[in-house]
């Protein structure tokens, strides 16, 4: 095959690829070749799953460490001073419920789009407030537990970790709710908005 014929074949292939790419991407200006024009909710919420898993693993790690805590080696007669109990789980449960309530709300109802019923918009705002209150209550509860149960009792650092893990779980659960909200609110893969 001659060099000229190879160039013609290459140019034809490049032209066909460009035409195919323009067809797939819908001839949008500034579109990049990242795949098909729309992204599934699974792909959009991938960041949510990672952040959500990190939040829960942080506290689960503290709970496992607490369950297997042993007394200091130099003083084997003294039991561990503190353990993770049910009261430590309550702030995370509240934040989890708040995150679920917030992200189960239909975003169009909050904006008032396509609904003639004004009470539907009002109820959506009410549930958004309730979900936010649950998350804020979970964060406040975890900070209160950290201060009252772990910091004020002046436990060693290996035991105060339980309280810090609880606070970080609630903060990261709030971040995961924001990530999922943004992923669900996006119309396309190039449009991200934080409208309430």
Binned, the helix content reads 55-70%
Strand content: under 5%
Bulk shape: flat
The main pleated sheet reads as: none
- Mean pLDDT score: 79
Spatial extent as radius of gyration: 26 Å
Q: Which ranges are low-confidence, i.e. pLDDT below 50, for 5 or more consecutive residues?
A: 25-38
Question: Which structural category do the helix and sheet elements fall into?
Answer: mainly alpha
Total strand count, please?
0
Topology as a string of helices (H) and strands (E)? HHHHHHH
- Please tally the helical runs, counting DSSP H or I stretches of 4 or more residues: 7
- Quote the distance from N terminus to C terminus: 62 Å
Keywords, separated by commas or semicolons:
196 residues, mainly alpha, flat
What does this structure look like?
- This protein is mainly α and 196 residues long.
- Helix content is 69%, strand content 0%.
- The chain is built from 7 helices and no strands.
- The protein has helices at 3-25, 41-44, 46-67, 86-104, 107-111, 118-151, 157-185.
- α3 packs antiparallel against α7 (157-185), α4 (86-104) packs parallel to α7 (157-185) and α6 (118-151) packs antiparallel against α7 (157-185).
- The longest helix is centred in the last third of the chain and has 34 residues, at 118-151.
- The chain starts with a helix and ends in an 11-residue tail after the last helix.
- The relative contact order is 0.15.
- Residues 25-38 have low confidence and may be disordered.
């Amino acid at each position: 095959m001659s060099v000229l014929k190879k160039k013609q074949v290459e140019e034809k292939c490049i032209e066909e690829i460009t035409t195919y790419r323009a067809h797939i991407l819908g001839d949008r200006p500034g579109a990049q070749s990242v795949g098909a024009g729309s992204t599934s909710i699974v792909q959009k919420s991938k960041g949510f799953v990672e952040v959500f898993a990190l939040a829960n693993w942080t506290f689960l790690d503290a709970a496992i460490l607490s369950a297997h805590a042993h007394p200091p080696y130099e003083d084997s007669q003294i039991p561990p001073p503190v353990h993770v109990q049910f009261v430590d789980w309550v702030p995370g449960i509240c934040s989890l419920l708040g995150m679920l309530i917030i992200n189960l709300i239909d975003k169009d109802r909050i904006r008032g789009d396509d609904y003639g019923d004004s009470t539907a918009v009002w109820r959506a705002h009410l549930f958004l407030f309730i979900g936010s209150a649950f998350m804020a209550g979970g964060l406040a509860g975890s900070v209160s537990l950290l201060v009252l149960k772990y910091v004020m009792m002046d436990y060693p650092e290996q035991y105060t970790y339980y309280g810090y893990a609880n606070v970080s779980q609630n903060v990261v659960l709030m971040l995961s709710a924001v990530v999922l909200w943004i992923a669900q609110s996006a119309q396309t893969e190039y449009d991200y908005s934080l409208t309430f």
